[in-house]
Amino acid sequence: MSPKKPTNSPETNPLSPHPLPTSLRRKKKPYKPLSPLDSNTDRLFHIVQRTHNKTLASLLSGPRLEIVNETTGHIQVRRVPTRMLQYFCGPAILDAFASDRASILKIPNAAAEKVGIARVVRRQRVLSSAIDTIRACRLFGLEGDAVRIEELVVYGWMGAETWYMTDEHVEMIWDGYEGVLRETVLGDAVVWFVLNEVQGGAHALSEEIRWMLEQEEYDGLKVKVYDENLDGRWRLEGRDEYLERCREEREEELREQELGEEEETYWSAA
């Protein structure tokens, strides 16, 4: 009968300074990415509700990566679980921002703000944070969440009687973010605000905002207000009706543009 090994043997005692034999060492667990859900139409909240708790817990396991500003190299978010991003965003989004190192995602400087990326799952209820979050959601392919937050901001916050629009809000939406918000529902909401509360002098900051409209960077806003006054339909519409009309007109313009591009491609290939 072979002698029994002592309980404090290096092979059996995990506190021993000596390493365990290779045969007794725990093998590194391979982590397989889970099948991603459709984040274009699903919302994070709904995805989480439909996902089993064990699956959610497993998303925090495995390798992690850093989200880095492509231009500056600064780390925007640290130690993000790779499986979580793969599950909620899909591998195509990760591939779009992949770098030569598997542990790093490089985000273009103009694509989304650092605070927006960090708040995709930690949203704060202020306008600037909400806009940053909307842009970050779209960056990661979370269109359903972007639309939900956008609707909350435009219809829930800015459409409420208690909301007080300031010149800073107008500047943020119209002149901020390199002007990308002008042709969105947020830009439409600013035009409605100017039409209803600024041009007639009803708002306390009407004078300041009218002064803004005289500046070069607000020429586009001034033109939109002029065109709406010339058209006159907004006077017979409520705010929601006006915003819906703007959305339909924008979609129709996009369809015509796409049709024109298809025809141009067809004739150039003929």
Could you characterize what this model shows?
The protein is mainly alpha-helical. It has 2 domains: 35-157, no CATH class; 161-270, no CATH class. It has helices at residues 44-50, 53-58, 82-89, 91-96, 114-118, 127-139, 143-157, 167-174, 185-198, 206-213, 219-231, 239-269, and strands at residues 64-69, 75-81, 104-107. Strands 2-1-3 form a 3-stranded mixed beta sheet. Helix 9 (185-198) crosses helix 11 and helix 9 packs across helix 12. The termini are far apart. Mean pLDDT is 76; it is low at 5-26 and 120-125. Residues 1-37 are annotated as: Disordered.
Describe this protein with a few key phrases.
270 residues, mainly alpha, 2 domains, 3-stranded mixed beta sheet, 12 helices, 3 strands, 50% helix, globular
Secondary-structure class: mainly alpha
Radius of gyration: 27 Å
Query: What's the total count of β strands?
Result: 3
Largest sheet, in brief, is:
3 strands, mixed
> Which percent range describes the beta-strand content?
5-15%
Model regions low in confidence, pLDDT < 50 over at least 5 residues? 5-26, 120-125
Can you tell me the overall shape? globular
- Percent helix, as a range, is 40-55%
The average pLDDT value, as a whole number, equals 76
Number of domains: 2
The separation of the N and C termini measures 90 Å
Which sequence of strands runs across the widest sheet?
2-1-3
Number of helices: 12
What is the H-and-E element order? HHEEHHEHHHHHHHH
Region (Disordered): 1-37
Biased composition (Polar residues): 1-15
